[in-house]
Design goal:
alpha+beta; eight-stranded mixed beta sheet; six-stranded antiparallel barrel; about 20% helix; globular
């Protein structure tokens, strides 16, 4: 099973065997037979006005279908159990929908979200319908995102495979196959795309992964705290993808993987440590392949790691994690930028994975990493990471709620929202019809959570990853000044060649654009004393950039940015102001 990188779950295509069938397709005259004992799809020829006891029985059946679909159920109306489309009259359909509505009212947080109808040809206007039902969760859940970085061959995907599937590696990379998404990745062993892995923790701290759950949806349903891992590429050829993961997937912490059989810290890994320092990112170091480490080279590696941390993050302590450590305090200190924990692991022996999961289970967002606030009074800001077009639903965008909240609760006043900007700086008004957070249907998405939003635009606009969704009122007021094609940023130079460059590729959120370097000047006020003592402190500058071809973007102060030139990183920092 491969972990998909979409947070929107629309598993209800057809749970009875043929996922490409839909009774709304004009060419379909028969569906696969209904599966009575599994699946989230129920066939009903029709439902008539029934007694309360019958409604209770039907509601129990609906609850079972919802459980099978992890909060989603589909009722095919006008269809016999053998899958034959017989159709019903419009009056019978209205009665059936009313009964299904009464069934939903018997259950908590259950509602009909869409009704698709089709008129059967040559059957006296008889109709069939596809009724989609969701059970929206009201259980509070927390999430933290961890970007896994490291050099080629560091064992990033293998470690994540062990964590997310609960199985040891065979020493030849078997565990990583669970995360790799493409054939060439499996053949070469090199990750070339961003893959997401998930580990959840129940109310009692129990680890939730694919070892005790059959799908990501079930992991999210059963968890109270979720850690989403962002697996990145170690090969320099795919630096563009890794840069997008660093700033485009809104990680709250870095997990830097280093192979224990190496005698020194690779230069690529040193760059990731510098970026973590520049972006003030919490980080942990995971030493992999301890089963093949040699004592002499491991001692040299540890010395090099500690020396590297001394010059990149001199203000943070170091801690080699053992079973006796207080994981609650360690997790808090890591997120507060007080300490860098170092784990020694082996995917073959699953060595020290208990300590790693214990710290992750207690790792929560800090106010700085979570956004400005979670209060509903703040303006809503959503960063689009992926876009999808789904049958019977329309456009779905997935990403991260940076601040504020949005709701589809009918009892509250809906916010006016806009999405954009296009390359010319235009926004389009939208409406949100459904919300999923952590793959679970909900009525609200708030700051500090992943979300999938089904949206409808009021005017034509090509929706792309890297866009933002904002409160329309905020956009027309204070937010308007942040839509520009020129900006200043406080950065730390990672490559001395940057001083002579005329243009660089800048990554902002999930988008990247070519920008001209207009001015570089000394940063006199933003560098702290501890940063000045680091190896990049002397390289902190303010740079003014302008996007090529007069392309516009939303450039809010404080947004992290990373720039590259081909296959090398040249600087990292934060936006200071739009011009």
């Amino acid at each position: 099973m491969s972990t998909r990188d979409t947070l929107y779950s629309d598993e209800a295509a057809i749970g009875s065997g043929n996922e490409n069938c839909s009774l709304l397709d004009e060419t379909v005259s028969r569906l696969p037979p209904e599966m009575d004992r599994s699946g989230n799809v129920e066939y009903k020829t029709k439902l008539e006005a029934v007694s309360d006891s019958r409604i209770t029985h039907l509601a129990t059946q609906l609850q079972w279908r919802l459980a099978e679909g992890n909060g989603h159920a589909v009722y095919m109306v006008g269809v016999r159990d053998d899958g034959y489309l017989v159709g019903i009259t419009e009056t019978e359909l209205e009665t059936t929908i009313s009964v299904i509505q009464n069934m939903a009212l018997q259950l908590a947080n259950v509602a009909i979200v869409s009704i698709g109808k089709r008129v059967l040809e040559g059957q006296n206007s008889r109709v069939v319908a596809e009724v989609r039902i969701d059970q929206r969760s009201d259980i509070p859940r927390t999430e933290v995102r961890v970007a896994v970085l490291g050099d080629l061959g560091a064992g990033k995907s293998t470690v994540l495979g062990c964590l997310t599937y609960g199985e040891p590696d065979d020493g030849r990379g078997k565990a990583r196959l669970n995360l790799l998404r493409h054939r060439h990745e499996i053949e070469s062993g090199r990750t070339s795309s961003i893959a997401l892995g998930v580990v959840g923790f129940g109310a009692d701290g129990q680890v939730m992964n694919y070892a005790n759950n059959r799908s990501a949806e079930q992991i999210h349903q059963r968890s109270r705290h979720v850690v989403t891992f962002i697996d990145t590429c170690g090969f320099a050829k795919h630096l563009k993808t890794t840069a997008r993961a660093i700033v485009g997937h809104s990680p709250h912490a870095f997990c830097v993987a280093i192979a224990a059989d190496r005698g020194s810290v690779p230069e690529t890994t040193r760059e990731y440590l510098r970026i973590a320092a520049v972006l003030r990112m919490p980080m942990m170091i995971v030493l992999t392949k301890m089963d093949i480490a040699v004592k002499t080279t491991f001692a040299a590696l540890m010395h090099d790691i500690l020396a590297t941390l001394d010059v990149t993050v001199p203000a943070r302590g170091r801690c080699i994690v053992t079973a006796a450590i207080d994981t609650t305090q360690l997790a808090k200190d890591m997120m507060d930028l007080v300490v860098v924990p170092i784990f020694t692991t082996s995917a073959v022996r699953t060595l020290d994975f208990d300590e790693l999961t214990a710290v992750l289970s207690k790792t929560f967002q800090t106010p700085d990493t979570q956004g400005r606030d979670t209060a509903a009074c703040l303006s809503f800001e959503f960063h689009v990471e992926h876009t999808y077009s789904l049958d019977n639903i329309g456009t779905v965008v997935t990403g991260w709620v940076s601040r504020g909240c949005v709701t589809i609760d009918a009892t509250t006043v809906k916010k006016h929202l806009s999405i954009g900007p296009s390359s010319s700086g235009e926004f389009a008004d939208i409406e949100i019809s459904s919300i999923h957070t952590l793959r679970i249907p909900t009525e609200m998405a708030k700051a500090g959570t992943s979300a999938a939003l089904a949206i409808t635009t009021h005017k034509p606009l090509s929706i792309e990853k890297g866009m933002v969704i904002l409160d329309t009122g905020y956009l027309r007021g204070l937010g308007a000044r942040w839509v520009s094609n020129e900006f200043c940023a406080r950065i730390a130079i990672l490559s001395q060649e940057f001083q002579s460059m005329q243009s660089v590729v800048v990554h902002i959120r999930s988008a990247y654009r070519l920008a001209h370097v207009l001015e570089i000047k000394e940063d006199t006020g933003s560098v702290s004393h501890s940063q000045k003592q680091s190896d990049f402190g002397r390289n902190c500058v303010v740079v003014r950039l302008r996007f090529e071809d007069n392309v516009y973007d939303y450039l809010s102060p404080g947004m992290p940015i990373v720039a590259r030139d081909g296959q090398s990183l040249v600087f990292a920092g934060h936006i200071a102001d739009a011009i």
